[in-house]
């Protein structure tokens, strides 16, 4: 990893398995955010499952939004 001038290395930990990840930051990132980023990048089974569930929930929300728009548009025509 190339160092960016003025950046600090901070460490986040996967919320599921505790694996550490380094991030170059301004030095002002809270530990909870670092841990969230580490969890998003982790390859452990639990973090992978969490990403799959999150992606599925985003698809559900998108479909609800599309359905809502469809219903509103058809109500205006009726």
Task: Please give the structural blueprint.
Layout: E1 8-13, E2 20-25, H1 31-41, H2 45-77
Antiparallel strand pairs: 1-2
Can you offer a commentary on this structure?
This protein is α+β, with helices and mostly antiparallel strands. It is built from two helices and two strands. The chain has a two-stranded antiparallel ribbon. Strand 1 (8-13) and strand 2 form a beta hairpin. It is elongated. The model has no long low-confidence stretch (mean pLDDT 92).
Mean pLDDT reading: 92
Determine the strand fraction and express it as a percent band: 15-25%
Strand order of the largest sheet: 1-2
Structural class: alpha+beta
Helix segment tally: 2
Q: Which outline best applies?
A: elongated
Q: How many beta-strand elements?
A: 2
Kindly, what is the distance between the CA atoms of the first and last residues, rounded to a whole number of angstroms?
A: 59 Å
Multimeric state of these chains? single chain
Uncertain segments are: none
Radius of gyration: 19 Å
Biggest sheet architecture: 2 strands, antiparallel
Summarize the structure.
The chain is of the alpha+beta class and 78 residues long.
